[in-house]
Amino acid sequence: MRHSAGSGPGKDRDGGDGRFGRIARSPLGWMLAGMVGVGLVSGLTATGPGPVPVLGAVAAVAVYCYVMRRVARRSAPEIARSGAAREVLLGGGIGLGFILVSALLITAFGGYSFTWAGDGFMSVVWTAVVVQIGAAVTEELLFRGLALQALEQLWGSRAALVITSLFFGVAHLGAPGASALSGLAIALEAGVLLGAAFLWRRNIWFVVGLHFVWNTTEQLLGIPVSGHAPEGLFTVDVHGSALLTGGSFGLEASIVPVLMGVAIAVPMLVRAHRNGGIKARRHTPR
């Protein structure tokens, strides 16, 4: 049998990339490739000194763009620079309100009391901002950019939202003070809320803004962020039931933000449905 020039064991007759290329371009293929790349960048930079986490976030975005364009062979409008600042600010406003109202309600019910720490204002703020930029960008690229969109192509938006929310909760089970209840709380208030935010806006920067301000506000208030006790501008004394306060895991394990998170996510999902952002399961020919 004659072979055309350039053909070989790694090529299809039509000039494609063969079986490996088809696997890589499948939703699970590019999801796994992206997770390995972004996860590796995050692991190497998340706890680095100075601006290293921010540089890691930049590198993670570059890896994500490369995987989407070269491996998945799709455009990535969700990461476009146009309008990014507006989306970050809008998402950040929601994240700020979410945490401040949650903390205020818990304080009003006697769960928290705050005192000014008074040490190193600028260094505390700088550390919080740098660390949380890295965390917000890499986590949103992994869970909403890669996992949610890949699973959505296979099984639709609803299944993708449920699966990524559950995995987001499971991913936080290794944090200090974590439990099955804190994992469920993270899945509901964070996994569902952040997933709904992405389905509504279809923009990574919107979700990054929400996530970043959420975590940064918690850290500056001195409240543990997913079990990690930060150096904040305040120190917080915790009183009463862990159901109200979240216990040693922090505010995210409290019933208050769980209820608030679901309440915010529902209208986002309604708007996503009206805008055509909720996609049905893809039917493959038999």
UniProtKB/TrEMBL annotation:
Which keywords does UniProt give here?
Membrane, Transmembrane, Transmembrane helix
| Domain of life, source organism | Bacteria
Membrane-crossing residue ranges in chain numbering:
50-67, 88-112, 124-143, 155-175, 181-200, 212-229, 249-272
Task: Give one GO molecular function term.
Answer: endopeptidase activity
Q: Which Pfam families match?
A: Rce1-like
**Protein's UniProt keywords contain Zinc-finger:** no
* Domain CAAX prenyl protease 2/Lysostaphin resistance protein A-like intervals: 124-216
GO biological process: one example: CAAX-box protein maturation
Q: What is this protein called?
A: Peptidase
The upper taxonomy is: Bacteria, Bacillati, Actinomycetota, Actinomycetes, Kitasatosporales
